[in-house]
Design a protein that fits this description.
16 helices, 0% strand
């Protein structure tokens, strides 16, 4: 029997039962609960696997549960749909009021965060004697720089954030996925060029080729999308556009992730342009479908991440490097936000820059994109370096989702109290 259906049943059963238990009992944020409970389940599986080692079928099943094919799930299955879903909902006409702040955060802060993280990790690596070059560290920085829109917005919405600040945070998290992928392509091109010497050729092939494919496929599919009156066909057309772009890029050696983001942004832009011209598109089912699909895929991903936490234990010097990765992430995030906020100007809702930086630093959760990029980096570096990158990325995702996510309410209340006192 093919294990695909069995794996699907197991994952969906965990998503449903853990989600229902959380809804009725613990009442954590959905994403936090899924990862927290599956990390606990993964630990129990690890213990049971050690106890039942060598006992045949039971031991084999436990081992398979600990090592779901997370890389195949992301890179060969759902990454393109997750990226499209994150970028196709952007209401570009609403961005005008906060365009400066969102652009600086999504582009400037993401770039600076990647650079700051890379420099910090490179310096620490030199002290610890790690086999890291500066381009590899910068590539590592680009992997952990983009925040996760699903986790961040779902957690922060619970606190009834003021509308202006909420819109800026949501806009940044939606836009910086594409920026993170572009930075990863750029810095991984530097890593590849260390051996091949063809940095600009790699960039042209990976980045420009992906953009061209995304534009061409969208130009072919969007006229059908915009002129059909069948809302189901609109959904089918969007699925065709993003999957076709990804497949074409995979065959041509381009970045399928970049093409997926391009498709999503273009669908959003063309949709908003149609509305600007006075031609409103009926897209209620389209919006609902992609929102539900995005939530489902992210829920399954968080369960798989929790069950696969054992991969962190494979990282050399696991404790030191995990703490280093987490600390570097917080410092780089705060530093990049501080630098970007210099040019933002006036903040809405009475927020001052120190409170704004604190809120976005602690609310900068990481998710599936970072893990997917870390996995795709395995082909570019040695096994030892890839384990450190993957383990560090896992540590950051777990820490930001569970620790930062569960303490976010206290941080937000503390910030609100300082605003009330006028500090």
């Amino acid at each position: 029997m093919d294990t695909f259906l069995l794996d699907t049943v197991i994952l969906l059963a965990l998503v449903v039962t853990l989600g229902y238990f959380n809804e009725k009992v613990t009442k954590f944020t959905h994403e936090i609960a899924l990862m927290l409970f599956t990390v606990i389940a993964g630990g129990l599986l690890l213990v049971l696997g050690a106890v039942l080692k060598g006992t045949g079928t039971a031991s084999q099943v436990l081992e398979e549960l600990q090592f779901f094919n997370l890389e195949g799930f992301l890179m060969e299955g759902v990454l393109c749909f997750m990226l499209f879903a994150g970028s196709c909902h952007m209401r570009l006409l609403d961005f005008k009021k906060h365009a400066r702040a969102i652009s600086l955060l999504a582009v400037g802060a993401t770039f600076l965060g990647a650079v700051f993280y890379g420099l910090i990790f490179y310096g620490a690596g030199r002290i610890l004697g790690l086999p890291f070059t500066l381009p590899v560290c910068l590539m590592f920085g680009s992997i952990v720089a983009p925040t996760d829109p699903i986790a961040a917005t779902s957690i922060l919405k619970k606190f009834n954030l003021p509308p202006g600040i909420s819109f800026i945070i949501e806009g940044e998290s939606l836009l910086n996925d594409g920026m993170g992928v572009a930075l990863f392509i750029f810095f991984s091109g530097m890593v590849t060029a260390e051996e091949s010497g063809g940095f600009f050729a790699v960039m042209a092939k990976e980045l420009l080729g992906a953009v061209a494919v995304g534009v061409v496929v969208t130009c072919v599919c969007f006229p059908i999308f915009s002129h059909t009156k069948d809302e189901s066909r609109q959904i089918f057309t969007s699925l065709l556009a993003v999957s076709l772009s990804y497949v074409l890029c995979e065959y041509a050696g381009f970045s399928g992730a970049i093409a997926s983001v391009v498709c999503g942004v273009l669908f959003s832009a063309l949709r908003n342009f149609s509305e600007y011209r006075g031609r409103t598109l009926e897209l209620h089912q389209f919006d609902s479908f992609w929102e539900i699909l995005d939530t489902l895929l992210n829920s399954v991903l968080y369960v798989m991440l929790g069950l696969s936490f054992i991969r962190i234990l494979q990282m050399p010097h696991v404790l030191v490097l995990s703490l280093l990765a987490i600390a570097a992430n917080l410092v780089a995030r705060a530093g990049s936000l501080g630098a970007a906020s210099i040019f933002i100007g006036h903040l809405p809702d009475g927020y001052q820059k120190p409170q704004f930086i604190c809120l976005l630093t602690w609310g900068g959760l990481r998710g599936g994109l970072s893990v997917a990029l870390a996995m795709s980096a395995q082909e570019l570096v040695s096994e030892e370096v890839s384990l450190i990158i993957l383990g560090g990325t896992y540590a950051i995702v777990f820490f930001t989702t569970i620790i930062q996510g569960m303490t976010m309410q206290k941080v937000y209340r503390s910030i609100q109290s300082t605003l009330v006192r006028g500090e």
